[in-house]
Design a protein that fits this description.
four-stranded antiparallel β-sheet; globular; six-stranded antiparallel β-sheet; about 15% strand; about 425 residues; Alpha-Beta Plaits; alpha+beta
Length: about 425
Amino acid sequence: MLYCGANRTGRWSGRQYQPQNLPRPSARWEDIDKADPWKPIEDIAVPAVLFNDAATIAAHGGANAVCNDVTRSAIVSELGHQLVSADWANIESRFLAWCTENRWKLDYFRAVDRGEAADSYKALWARFFNMKTDDVTKTMRYAAKRLDLACGYLGSVGALISMSILDNVDMTDWPTLVLPKASPDQLGRAQRAWRKAFINGEDFGVEPAIFKAAHIMVQLYRETNKAVVEEGYHIGNVVADAMQKPNTLFRAAKCDIWYNGHALIIQLPSNRRLFYWSPMMREEREEDLEHGEVKIRQVFWYKASRGKQWRWLKGWPGLWIENICQAGCNDVLRLGMLEVQAYCKAEPRLAAWLATLPDNARTPIALHVHDEPTLEVPTGMLSHETLEWLLTDNLAAKYKWMDGLPLAASGWTGRRFRK
């Protein structure tokens, strides 16, 4: 685990063995083996390969998919120990709603945490089409999840389609799900957007109906989450104002923002700072190939280190809101792991066990994958319910800046790692 591997946000990265990049299972084995839904996948899939159980292999998508599916389960605790893990629920989506004051989503997350509502992705799709959440199918929910991840940081059709292609998402159902329910105005805007993208060679080679469905989904997301869009572009305006007025403090998305003559600085709610060095505003020319119109706009550029070099990179409102959310979630992770470490050092049985370890290894934290710390402890010494509490109610009570941030976590305990 490489601390501050992502130099802008301070998130961890990895070297050599990288648990962050382990492939997700391609099949939900809980759905395949309903009699024992938490049975480790390798106990199902590996014997199927060894004994040529064609039905089970086919259910998992073939031998290659089986190898992919068991990769995470290769992480095993030593005998007499167990893994205890907890995953913050929708942490980036929750942080985004919190820092942009997206009231409907904040209220919905709190209702989910009280057990009074379905998950937020079902709610998002239901809100698009005035449906009941119980009528939202798995396909609809997954489309809403992709949309939330792609468009939360002001992404548009390009972000949605490219992310879906990268994650091998089947987009063929989108036109059937979306186009019949779209208004004439939405259809018209989608048609114009597709025509422009096609002329500019920016349609990603997908069928026109898929592109139009994606565009309508983006329209629906932005209409439903106006607070996110407005605050995102407000940050862009604040950055431009800060560049024109050095050493003047501005505020957006619960952050303080200013330019000190050397760097654009964004101070997060935690008081940690993000730096964008040697920034400047440049004029750029943008031409509409269909109508021949030319627009001149001001674009933010800054320097960032890449390897052993400094390179110029472009900044835009989506980048600011993404960096704020990802860095803020990383602050939650850092403080959460410190709370876990402090609790384990204070709990007598865990403290006695930690004392038997080498000086440089006295921590129960074995790994963490973005928003999921995973501990390895002697069996029975720590429950996942305690870990959930440490990462939510306990954490929020100790740090004033998290006031109003709806934290929730879901944990598990077992010998083999899963996600």
